[in-house]
Amino acid sequence: MLKIFWPPNNYEIREDAWGSGRFGSPRTKTSPDGTVIHYPHEGLDLVFEPGQAAIGPITGKGRWVWVYEKDSYSGLEVTDGSLIVKLLYILPAPQFRNKRAAVEAGKGIGIVQDISKKFKGMTPHIHLEARIHPSKTLPEMLKLYPKGIPINPEILL
Length: 157
Ligand SMILES: [Zn+2]
Prior knowledge:
mainly beta, Glucose Permease (Domain IIA), 7-stranded antiparallel sheet, binds zinc ion
């Protein structure tokens, strides 16, 4: 059974003026031509204090990712060949800058950023996303989900 290492076990899911942090919650965005697009939230938003340590969710290789084009919010994408786990709104540790580096489940990988500075009234949190690795994905599913099938991280905690 696939598992994500996650302390503490009694996690809290974000619920605030911006919506619910549950997997599958409705989200909208506006495309450049003004069309409103509805889509499901593909992660789970777990409440954290800014400055808290972020912990490696699985043992594998970690890669630094940016969340938005024009600011400093970042995250770490960790792969073990079966799962791809992405943690957003964390500042990864320096070893991840410009190269992939080893991640160990349960060991520190960075610190939690303060997303409430960008979105007033939003509870600071880590966005946790999990996908089944594309190589483990049935070909017909791969057409729908080229980056792997998103799954609810809650079933892995
Ligand atoms: Zn989220």
